[in-house]
Write a structure and sequence with these properties.
The structure is a single chain. About 45% of the residues are buried. The chain has a seven-stranded parallel β-sheet, sandwiched between helices. The longest helix is centred in the middle third of the chain and has 26 residues. The chain is globular and about 55 Å long. β2, α2 and β3 form a beta-alpha-beta unit. α4 packs parallel to α5 and α6 packs across α7. Helices cover about 45% and strands about 15% of the residues. By secondary structure, it is an alpha/beta fold.
């Protein structure tokens, strides 16, 4: 069975990194999971690994795609109880060279995509006949709580995600649905690996040196694992977290 038996979780960006780890964690606790993303192959790979999982191709920047995503998830596993808005992307540039297209791409995926994901599933998550109250978890970042150089658009988007979570938590507090944002520091994901490769190519540093530069920004000088983030998200979905609402939960390293 498991603590989430009978629950249905929709997870965007579920084919790799943090999203895939969350899918495994929630499925391991008994939830049915619908994992969504733009690329079919990694979604299918994750879906075949875990029990009671469905892969859905969708672009979270499209309102039409998000509506279809929620509809497909519902058709496979019934009403959605848990929404994990995880899909994200990052690009870097100094503000003086940051053009509008760059800005719009980053805002569209990280912030508008989070909004459209939740909006598409909101009627399910807040339905009155649910056995237990729904859960909404946004995957933000420490960039939603402080600034970083050369990623102004990303910081703005993630600050927006935290604000969205806080506003929605107040709107939904009478329903019993909790809304929170998890804010990891630098995490060992394909997104970070791409950033590491770019920095190594531009600076002449080795991959390990470039990765260490990111890790040093976390509190204990190491990268966070996707599984650590997934366990925090899992806890937020359990009955024990019923009183945790409207929080931006910092994950910036700790004892290994």
């Amino acid at each position: 069975m498991g603590a989430l038996a009978g629950r249905h979780a929709l997870i965007t960006g579920g084919g790799t990194g943090i999203g895939a780890a969350i899918a495994r964690a929630l499925a391991g606790a008994g939830a049915a999971v619908s994992i969504a993303g733009r690329r079919r192959a990694p979604l299918d790979e994750v879906a075949t690994e875990i029990k009671n999982a469905t892969a859905i191709v969708a672009d979270v920047t499209s309102e039409t795609d998000c509506a279809a995503m929620a509809r497909a998830a519902r058709e496979h596993h019934g009403p959605i109880d848990i929404v994990i808005a995880n899909a994200g992307m990052a690009e870097s540039a100094p503000v003086a060279k940051l053009d509008l297209a760059h800005w719009q791409r980053v805002i569209d995926v990280n912030l508008t995509g989070a909004f459209l994901t939740v909006k598409a599933a909101l009627a399910d998550v807040t339905r009155k006949n649910a056995a237990t109250p729904g859960r909404i978890v946004f995957i933000a970042s420490t960039a939603g709580l402080k600034g970083y150089p050369y990623v102004a658009a990303y910081c703005a988007a993630k600050h927006g995600v935290v604000g969205l979570a806080r506003a929605l938590s107040l709107e939904l507090k009478t329903t019993g649905v909790t809304v929170n944002a998890v804010c990891p520091g630098y995490t060992d994901t394909p997104l970070l690996a791409n950033a590491v490769a770019i920095i190594a190519a531009k600076t002449g540093r080795s991959i390990e040196q470039s990765k260490s530069a990111f890790a040093s920004d976390n509190d204990d000088g190491r990268l966070i694992s996707p599984e650590e983030v997934a366990q925090k998200v899992l806890w937020l979905c359990l009955p024990e977290a019923n009183t945790v609402n409207g929080q931006a939960i910092l994950m910036s390293g700790g004892p290994s």
